[in-house]
Amino acid sequence: MEINHDRLGFAFCLALAIHAAFILGVSFTREKPAVAPPKLEITLAQHRSKTAPEEADYLAQSNQQGSGTLDEKAMLTTQELSDFQDTAIREVAQQQQQSQSERQLAANTQITTTASSNSKANRQQQQEKTEQANQQQADNMTVVQRSMEIASLEAKLDIQRQAYAKRPRVRRLTSVATKQSDDALYLHNWRTKVEAIGNQHYPSKAKQQQLFGKLRMVVSILPNGDIYQVKILQSSGHKILDQAALKIVHLAAPYDPFPQTMQRKVDVLEIIRTWRFHKDRLSSST
User: Fold this and answer.
1) Which of 40, 57, 60, 154 has the lowest tally of Cβ within 10 angstroms?
2) Residue 219 in contact with residue 242, Cβ under 8 Å?
3) Which residue intervals make up region (Disordered) (predicted)?
4) What is the C-alpha separation between 169 and 128, in angstroms, rounded?
5) Measured distance CA(137)–CA(145) in Å, rounded
6) Could you tell me the CA-to-CA distances from 144 to 20, 152, 154, 216 in Å, in that order?
């Protein structure tokens, strides 16, 4: 037990001696700051001075004396060279500038008054010439406008004449206009054919529903007997009867051509008739 205790004491003393030697042998010193390299500020001189400044703020291509009231060095804010130099900022007298402006305004007023009195007559003459020129131009425009209106009226009249000359010659056959023999004979033959076709194709729906009535219709016929136009002037009040009348007229076409005497005078023949749908037959009248 004594041997182990001696060994432990010896080891403790040895460790203590080693730590003491390490602590006492190692020291810490403050690092010396690095010396900043020299900085060289360069600018361009805007003006050339004959003498070099005692203490230059910048390096440039030529000597230039600084000026101004700033505490620190600064670049130039303008490239213009002042005619007057001063080291302090001074207030400018506003009254002096105002007086000078007032004198200039008074001089301009005098010049304007003199010039206006001399040019008044010239302006009046110029105004009279302008009014005369405007009046002459208005008179010329009136003449031109009237000529254009006359030409336009003549053109419209020519168009109306041409349209009237091209308008088809229409003859309308009614109870009054059926005195000529050719018209009466043609109307008789046409009515006979239409009534025969109408009775053959009498609408069955009208018989079933016992629909009766009358309608007024105009049929336009060309010289060769073809239908030009069919139009109902007054409805029967029943759609079935109106459609049946239109169908009968087209079923009976084409009709007889116009007689030679009628073709020389008529381009379109209009036949106006009243169609009556009775209980079991069709008839027409004027």
Assistant:
1) 40
2) no
3) 112-139
4) 63
5) 12
6) 130, 12, 15, 54
Cβ(260)–Cβ(271) below 8 Å: no
How does pLDDT run across 148-197, given as a tens digit for each residue?
Answer: 788 777 777 667 666 645 567 776 666 544 445 677 888 889 999 999 99
- Interaxial angle between packed helices 239-252 and 181-200, expressed in degrees from 0 to 180 and rounded to the nearest 10: 120
Instruction: Give the pTM.
Output: 0.41
| Token output for 14 | 């040895």
Cα–Cα dist 227/254, whole Å: 7
pLDDT of residue 178: 45
Say which residues have a Cβ less than 8 Å from residue 76's Cβ, sequence separation at least 6.
46
- The rounded distance, in Å, linking the Cα atoms of 276 and 199 is 11
Instruction: State the pLDDT at residue 176.
Output: 44
Q: Environment class of residue 267 by beta-carbon count within 10 Å: exposed (0-12), middle (13-18) or buried (19+)?
A: middle
Phi–psi pair at 213, nearest 5 degrees:
170, -175
Q: What is the 3-state secondary structure (H, E, C) of 9-58?
A: HHHHHHHHHHHHHHHHHCCCCCCCCCCCCCCCCECCCCCCCCCCCCCCCC
| Length in residues, the chain | 286
Closest CA to 236 of 248, 226, 244, 225: 244
Give the position of tokens 């105004």.
Answer: 127
Which pairing describes strands 282-285 and 268-277: parallel, antiparallel, or unpaired?
antiparallel
